[in-house]
Each structure stands twice: as C-alpha cells, then as structure tokens.
Amino acid sequence: SDPSSSRRGAFIVFEGLDRCGKSTQVARLVDRLERESQKARLQKFPDRTTAIGKMIDAYLQSKAEMDDHAIHLLFSANRWECAAAIKRDLDRGITVIADRYAFSGIAFSAAKGLPFDFCLQPDRALPLPDLTLYMSLPQEEATQRSQFGEERYETVTMQQATRKQFRLVAEEVKKIHGGKKWMEVDARGTIEEVEERLKGLIGDLTDGVNGRVGELWV
Ligand code: NYM
Ligand code: MG
C-alpha cells in the first residue's frame, strides 16, 4: 500500500508583528503550492468575514470600543468557529496555511496588560500547528512600510510591547510542544530572499505529515 495515502495535510502558521511581510509571504506560498498542484488553503486570522469577525474588524478600525477581555475572547471565538473546518481540511490532505493564530492573540492582549495565563486559556485544545514561522523585523523597518499606523495597535509602543510578549509565547510553545514547532525567520531583505528562507524551513511539510493533529497547550 502507498504510505503517503494515510498522510494528512500540514498546518502551517505565520506569525509576526504588523507590517513584517507576513501576508505577502503567505499569498506567495499558497500561489506556489497551487502552481505545483498541491492542495492548500489560506486561513486568515482574524477571519473578518464572519459575524464575530465583523465585530473584531469594527474594533480594529476604532469604529467600536470593547473591554480588553471581551475582545480577547472574541478573537479566540473567531478561531474556534474555524477550527472544525481546519481539522476537516487537514484530514482531507489539504495544507492549511494560517496568517496569524492564537500566538498573536496572546501577544497583543498581554501587551495591553492582560495576564499571560488568562490570554492563553481560551485557545487551549485548538488544532496545534505543525510549524509556526515567526517573521522577525526590526521596528524601524516595519514603521517605514506603507500603511503602518492604519489600525488599532499599530503604534511603536504597542508593537515593542507585543514583540516582548511574542518572545514569551515562543518560550511557552517550545516548553509545551518542543523546539521544532516554532521557528524564527529573519524578515529583512527582498521578498524573494525572505521567500527562500521560508521555503527552506518549510521543506517537505507541504507533502503532508503523519499522525493526528495535536491540541494547542495540551
Ligand atoms: N490580533 C490578531 C489580535 O490582537 N489578536 C488576535 O487573536 C489576532 C489573530 O489584530 N494588529 C491583532 C493583530 C493585528 C490585528 O491582524 C489585525 P491583521 O493580520 O493585520 O489583519
Ligand atoms: Mg495589520
């Protein structure tokens, strides 16, 4: 029998601060996989298309105010409402590529001063990414990029505080899930240079992986 037939799709997450080039790289990866006739799907978080996502979108655009805890839980609820579809697609052999995930949820909310433990709990048992690629860019470079400052959280102070929290999130992932699940990538340089770095780290993950999808923080 063909052992590859039992493989599921890989769950790959891209993380980073605002304007680090994440969305560009995610789009290029999905394009490449489609050209190579591999099955892949992009999942953006927040997913602003759902009812919960519309509330999040209004908050991020400062069209609505919300308690810090309440918006934190909405971001998490937005992931939970997508969790079953992610699992289903992985089981069908589709590579699911997420533009942000629970790690942004913790880092941004903790940067506002919410307790780290509170931030972590609502996402417990969500599908565990097989690999998270954290794109790291010096703040001066992100600030210079177009559209920086458009949305809530896009201030230098907030980004620097979030950067510190992302370091704690990385430690937590490595402690609970092992060092291979989180990789930091230098996001400086041209789009092509960064793409090559990412491609090297992703390797043959997009050919599928063995074993069941894990649970986050479990
Ligand atoms: N964000 C994103 C959070 O604060 N919590 C979360 O759980 C997620 C997924 O939303 N500044 C923040 C990070 C971003 C903002 O994300 C919108 P994007 O990728 O710019 O659409
Ligand atoms: Mg943004």
Automatic annotation (TrEMBL):
Q: Name one GO cellular component term.
A: cytosol
Keywords, ordered alphabetically: ATP-binding, Kinase, Nucleotide biosynthesis, Nucleotide-binding, Transferase
What pathway is this protein a component of? Pyrimidine metabolism; dTTP biosynthesis
Q: What class of enzyme is it?
A: transferase
GO terms under biological process? dTDP biosynthetic process; dTTP biosynthetic process; dUDP biosynthetic process
Question: EC annotation?
Answer: 2.7.4.9
The record ties this protein, via HAMAP family, to:
Thymidylate_kinase
Name under which the protein is recorded:
Thymidylate kinase
Q: Which organism is it from?
A: Kwoniella europaea PYCC6329
